[in-house]
Amino acid sequence: MSNIITKIEVQKRNKDRVNVYINEEFNFACSSELIYYHNLKKGKVIDENNLNDIIREDNYIKAKGYALKYIEKSLKTETQVKEKLYSKEYNEDTVDRVIKFLKDYDFIDDNKYCDMYIREKLNIYGRNKIKYALLNKGIEESIVIEKINNIDEEKEKKIAYKLAEKKYKIMILREKDKFKIYKKIWAYIISRGYNSNIAEWIINEIKSNEALYKDNNICLDEQDIKSNKNIENNIKDENLDKFHNNSSFNSKNNNYKENIDILARKRYDIIIKSEDDKNKIYRRLSNYLLRRGFSFEEVKKSTNRILYGIE
């Protein structure tokens, strides 16, 4: 039996779409433009191949319209658009065609998205947080790394300092313990996506400018970081390069250097059994010695002697 179009009617709720009846029964709905494109009319015989072509084109038109509406309010990444289309159960062929259309007409561009996102977020976040946010949006790692490496380091430091300074001025109104203030400032900066070098530089700058910590008693202990419930984003202790500067720990014993090196060597031999990354070894060894009460400067010197054979 031939497939004969017996009725074509415009949908009541959407004038841009029509219902097509074949052999007196509803068969499919499609965009009205396909009616003219394929010259569909009452009494025309339509075979399965033509029918499939029409349905495929209609899916593409619907998917394209949906994608354009999705990106209307804000830029999206290629992956975000794909995921949205797949969530509407469009097949891979349709999604690929839509993505090609959007890229050809510059509706989506992951390079431009990165530039826009970095400009927008650089005033509140550091490169680490920006990097992981972009990766989570599905942008290729090579693109993200290239863009992140182009961030001006001095500009990043200045922004981080302003954020920390603002936080500090609020904290000193309700917190008198300088030890806690510095620990929270450090954690805050790390949670914002700045690296430990910037965090350490900021604390030193604030300390110098505000004439705080006259006793030079600054310490960030690994266990303290874990127990601090106010730290944002569950900061991982391995991302913090702790520092310690407590003059009360300075030993007058002539065997001080020898004693710390003996302790450091024993701990080093234990650590290397499960770790071969020198940076991680350095952090773990430093943390261990700091928790034993040695000063930051002596820990740094001893760790360098053990790992690199230098003073």
UniProtKB/TrEMBL annotation:
- Domain (RecX second three-helical): residue spans on this chain: 109-144
Gene Ontology CC terms, in alphabetical order: cytoplasm
Pfam families hit by this protein: RecX_HTH1 (PF21982), RecX_HTH2 (PF02631), RecX_HTH3 (PF21981)
The UniProt entry lists the main location of this chain as cytoplasm
- Occurrences of domain RecX third three-helical (ranges): 258-300
Q: Where in the cell is it found?
A: Cytoplasm
Swiss-Prot/TrEMBL keywords: Cytoplasm
- Keyword Transcription among record annotations: no
RecX first three-helical domain: residues covered: 63-102
According to its UniProt entry, the protein's GO biological process terms are: regulation of DNA repair
PANTHER family reported in the protein's UniProt record: REGULATORY PROTEIN RECX FAMILY PROTEIN
The entry's family comment says: Belongs to the RecX family.
Q: Which HAMAP family match?
A: RecX
Function (record text)? Modulates RecA activity.
Listed name of the protein: Regulatory protein RecX
